[in-house]
Amino acid sequence: MDPNRPISRSTFLKISTRWLAGLLAAPITGLSYSRWIEPKWIQTNYLQLPYTSLPRAFHLKKIVQFSDIHLDFHFGIHRLEQLIARIRKLKPDLICFTGDLFHASVKSNESSTIRLLSLLEAPPGKMGGAGQP
Question: Which residues are in the Calcineurin-like phosphoesterase domain (predicted)?
């Protein structure tokens, strides 16, 4: 095909339609992922920390870290119940929650959330934010 030759109208329309479809598909795909897939995705990673300077108190200890629940947005109380059951099944030695429990309103599921979080147990005990028991 000669690069200097102008393209036909039908070829132009085919190419334009493909580009438009691609431009429309990208945000729809991203929105679909962020709305229906990622919020339901609970991922468990198992890591062994190979630090030689790690204090002996942490040797062979199981640490569970969870965060970004955003309760009431994509993550309902039933999903929190499933997560708590999953964490308990792991029988951790230490549990670390690193933020964003509620999305906007604490009031809607306050008592259920407290009840579920109180089911979490680890040998060192429980401690709230800023060192508060």
Answer: 62-120
Cα–Cα distance for residue pair 7/16, rounded to 1 Å: 12
Classify the C-alpha dihedral 69-75-76-82 as positive or negative. negative
Whether the Cβ atoms of residue 63 and residue 94 lie closer than 8 Å to each other: yes
What's the distance, CA 75 to chain centroid? 10
86, β-bridge pairs: none
Q: Are 100 and 65 in contact (CB under 8 A)?
A: no
Length of the chain equals 133
Q: Roughly what angle, to the nearest 10 degrees, separates helices 110-117 and 77-90?
A: 10
CA–chain centroid gap for 83, Å, is 11
Q: What is the pLDDT of residues 97-126, one digit of tens each?
A: 887 888 776 666 788 888 999 999 998 876
> Among 48, 41, 30, 31, which residue's Cα sits nearest to residue 66?
41
Nearest to 101 by CA among 57, 67, 76, 128: 67
Which pTM value belongs to this model?
0.69
Count of CB atoms situated within 10 Å of the CB of 31: 10
